[in-house]
Amino acid sequence: MLKVINQQKKTPKYQFIAMLAALLAIISITAFGASDPGGYGLKIYRVNSGLYPYVQVYFRTFDKDQQPLVNLNTMNIGLMVKGKAYDPMKRQYQVNSIRQRQEATRTVLVLDASKSMVGLPFEAALKASARYIDSKRPQDEVAILAIRDTKTGYEVVSEFERDPAALGRRLVDVKVDGNKTRLYDSIGAAMQMCGMAAQGSVTPSAENYIISCAIVVFSDGFDDGSALSREELNGRITDLAIPIPVYSLAYTKQSKHFKNLESLSKNSFGIYYLIGEALDKMTQTVEQVQNIIQSDYVLTFRSVVPVDGEEHAIKVGVEYPSGSGKFTYENAKMEAIEPPPVPAIKEMIQQLNQAIPPLPAGQASPYFDQSKEAATTAK
Fold first, then answer.
1. Could you give the domains of the chain?
2. Against a cut of 0.70, is the pTM above it?
């Protein structure tokens, strides 16, 4: 909330300055949601127009504790296209949880395998990593990086893999023998793995459509000898077109370095977890991370914008709790493009036609009928 600093009478000049300061404070609220600690927010991280006229908008929600909002549906999700609001009663869009869908996610586990982690700390990290792998969905993929004394400062233990058994075998082979901890270089490499992955491309099967990638880091936050600085890594994170959240599990006694992990997580739309010496919390924490990733939503709508090859503005809003009348909106863009003439894509569009059939003749517009609203208000 904006606080009144000075209650004294102001001249018009100072009134203007106060108004300008208030406006700048509002603009400075980040795109990740409301600044009010009692509020909530959403972040759109992908828009798929490859099945046009159907458009899929993927977004993540969070409350004041950065936990996902639950049980969202068309009645508390608002949609606007080119400034016009869709009427949910016309059933031209639907909202589904990713948990019940076939789209895949990717995660890179980054394990600090330096000698300072030998013993219970690393054993707890391995146990938590195994739990994360076991709790993923069959279509989700996990890669593993270990921070070790190699030329690059890390070892690729596993590329992206869906088979939990294969990931488990590679995980137990990680050696804890590093003398240096090139933490920033390793997280930078994990970001590159996410960026190089074929995310978002239209493929014949839904389970091959990668919608998001996240990084889970197990470390005390100490960096030793990275080519990248923390500032440079944060700069890369800020410049990403699609967020790659970093979930940091800060553990062991070296608390003076925990702020490094905290900085990376907060800058990347991730979460910083202070484990400290409570190693038994680690497994429970990765279950929370897995729950967040699987609690994303996808809004699918039928567009009536003619195919023109151009980008068009859309907005998605969340009203939470339902009936409060207060929406938090996030901006994005869709493309009005013809889908490629691929049989599998045509089949997917036909399935969407059944789920979201076109409006009957005479009701071609999916938007609110403002003239009827005005007439009702006038009466």
1. 41-100+300-313 (no CATH), 104-294 (3.40.50.410)
2. yes
